[in-house]
Amino acid sequence: MRTNNEIRHALMDRIQTRVEALNLNQIQAGNLCGVARNRFSEIKNHRSEFSVDALIGLLSRLGEDVKLEIILTRQTQGLPKLKGAR
């Protein structure tokens, strides 16, 4: 299971890859996404405190679609259903 920080780092890596693929500098990427240039420097260096939601939003502004997949593992298969769950 991935931790929140691992998910954030994976999203930051994807943002950096997308910025490079679009051949954008940090100023251009910041303008496109509505954030300051120094925030993209933080992303590049994995020092950003952006939430997972915010990072997904940045990817969306960079033209990426994000798919969330939930996989049942041995640990979760035997758990009882939560009240109100389908």
Describe this structure as you would to a colleague.
This protein has 86 residues and is mainly alpha-helical. The chain has a domain at 4-61: 434 Repressor (Amino-terminal Domain) (Orthogonal Bundle). It is 56% helix and 0% strand. It has 5 helices and no strands. The radius of gyration is 16 Å and the shape is elongated.
CATH superfamily of the domain at 4-61: lambda repressor-like DNA-binding domains
* Overall pLDDT: 85
Number of helices: 5
User: Would you give the CATH topology of the domain at 4-61?
Assistant: 434 Repressor (Amino-terminal Domain)
Low-confidence stretches: none
Helix content range of the residues, please? 55-70%
CATH class of the domain at 4-61: Mainly Alpha
Number of strands: 0
Q: Tell me, briefly, the overall form.
A: elongated
Which key phrases capture this entry?
86 residues; 56% helix; mainly alpha; 434 Repressor (Amino-terminal Domain); single chain
What's a quick, concise take on this entry?
The protein is built from five helices and no strands.
Walk me through the topology.
Blueprint: H1 4-21, H2 26-33, H3 37-44, H4 52-61, H5 74-77
Helix pairs in contact: 1-4, 2-3
